[in-house]
Design brief:
four-stranded mixed beta sheet; globular
Length: about 300
């Protein structure tokens, strides 16, 4: 049972939108690539977790704080007997491990992902003590890679690859009790309530309205859509066709995400979309889907009241 879904990665969403409208700085482009690979690994891992048949409690992407220290957990799996802490990583290079050091086959030392797992486990244990909840913890590191590795010593954390994860979860399903207690559910709910939504570690790039290229971006992120007829737009690069109303609404949401401080007006969206030739069409679609706040020539749209 998924108690907390992984949710949207705001940093990744922002970079996706920006990189088709401007040239990102090298550090931002590298961060985008890193986050995309991580998202792929998380989706793969989540698919495996959803295959569990027992009523385990799953909490994804937790940002917690204990003793004024923040720590992040990719996935928690709460079972009757213990809590599993999973760190999910995309690892693309062949590597080997000697003691606590990780190396590429060339001999170059690389970042040890186990450090973060062990740190998170220690801080999570402290948090459980504060919550007066006693349970065994089990650390797991999942690497979504088929690459070769060699290990010279036993690790303090269990390391799993794609081909091993299915077997691990199958074993969990077979040995653990099918139901967790009310205490476990209360713990899960408490952890969700303690989750910090604003991640101070996010490295958001600085941008302005003026520097961004205007237009409606193809859903596949490859090119601008162009006006072909009364009802649809088409991408000249991949051939993707989209209904105009859907494309305009999507562009409005992108604009609101990028510039939450700006008001939504017909002129603003007309200039943002560029390809839509009719302000009347934008007005009709906006009036249909949003509520108009009358303010003379400065009238603007907001979400409809529920």
């Amino acid at each position: 049972m998924v108690i907390k879904p992984r949710g949207e990665n705001v940093e990744l969403k922002l970079l996706r939108l920006l990189r088709v409208r401007k040239r990102l700085e090298e550090k931002d482009e590298n961060n985008y690539i890193y986050l995309e690979k991580g998202k792929f690994s998380e989706k793969l891992f989540d698919q495996y977790l959803l295959g569990l048949t027992n009523e385990f409690l799953i909490l994804n992407n937790l940002l917690l704080e204990v003793n004024n220290t923040l720590f992040q957990i990719d996935s928690l799996l709460i079972t009757q007997k213990k809590i599993f802490i999973f760190e999910v990583k995309k690892h693309e290079v062949d590597f080997y491990i000697v003691k606590d050091r990780w190396y590429m086959l060339s001999g170059k030392e690389i970042k040890n992902p186990l450090i973060q797992v062990i740190r998170s486990e220690s801080l999570f244990r402290q948090l459980l003590q504060e919550l007066r909840f006693s349970v065994m913890l089990d650390l797991k590191l999942f690497l979504s890679t088929q690459n070769f590795f060699s290990m010279r010593l036993r690790l303090k954390v269990h390391l799993y690859f794609i081909r091993q994860l299915g077997r691990l979860l199958k074993n969990l399903d077979s040995y653990d009790a099918p139901r967790v207690s009310g205490g476990h559910m209360r713990l899960a709910d408490k952890l969700v309530s303690l989750h910090i939504t604003d991640n101070p570690y996010s490295r958001l790039p600085v941008y302005t309205y003026e520097e961004l290229e205007k237009g409606i971006i193809c859903q596949r992120g490859c090119f601008h859509l162009e006006d072909t007829n009364r009802h649809t737009l088409v991408c000249n690069k991949c051939g993707f066709i989209e209904d105009k109303e859907a494309a305009i609404l999507r562009s409005i949401e992108e604009f609101r995400f990028l510039f939450p401080e700006k008001r939504i007006t017909v002129d603003v969206i007309y200039n943002w979309c560029q390809v839509i030739r009719s302000k009347r069409l934008i007005r009709e679609i906006s009036s249909k889907n949003f509520e108009l706040v009358l303010f003379g020539r400065g009238s603007y749209y907001v979400d409809k009241k529920r």
